[in-house]
Write a structure and sequence with these properties.
about 190 residues
């Protein structure tokens, strides 16, 4: 069982990670590992901080997914993330093959797939969560219209990707001030 102080230190490291301050996050996780070498959150955080230096998007996505697993009190959260980290190269290769296939047209200028193509992937996979987890480590969803953005954020909220949804909401609130649906999404996240 972690002490309250350890929880506070972990929270501080996580905040640095979310802000993109990976060196400081790594330092804090390192201190925790020195004192608690078997602390899984510190081990995962240190590994993802190291990955983030070169692959920011992938590390952030893995970190977000790890937080979702922990919030769901998934007993296998650490094992799942460690397996995902270990197979990240395989996943990137498989997604690349999928995107190079006839169904999806990859837009090389923005390194992503269109929102319409992503929605087709959701149908093929049978759920938003599964489709998003398939691509979140290797590509971006290219959103070109306000309606697509609002729908995407709604799906993130509905499927438990709250931290990621909040990052999109912050940008959307600036781009579309006074949009009632953005306010509704914020309220839903608060509740």
């Amino acid at each position: 069982m972690k002490s309250k102080k350890t929880e506070q230190i972990l929270e501080r490291a996580e905040n640095h990670f979310y802000r993109g301050d990976y060196d400081e996050a790594m330092r804090i996780y390192g201190v925790l590992l020195r004192d608690y070498p078997q602390l899984p959150e510190a081990r995962i955080g240190a590994i993802l901080s190291d990955i983030a230096v070169e692959n920011d998007d992938e590390a952030q996505a893995l970190f977000e997914y790890y937080q979702v697993l922990k919030s769901e009190e998934n007993e296998d959260a650490e094992r799942i993330i460690e397996e995902m980290i270990g197979s990240l190269d395989d996943a990137l290769e498989k997604i690349s093959e999928l995107l190079d296939g006839s169904l999806f047209a990859r837009d090389e200028t923005v390194n992503g797939i269109s929102y319409g193509d992503f929605k087709e992937l959701v149908e093929l996979r049978g759920s938003f969560r599964r489709a998003f987890e398939d691509i979140m480590f290797s590509t971006r969803v290219v959103i070109t219209e306000k309606e697509e953005l609002l729908d995407f954020i709604q799906q993130l909220v509905d499927h438990g990707f709250n931290e990621m949804a909040m990052r999109y909401i912050e940008g959307a609130a600036i781009a579309f001030p006074g949009e009632a649906r953005i306010q509704d999404l914020i309220e839903k996240l608060k509740g």
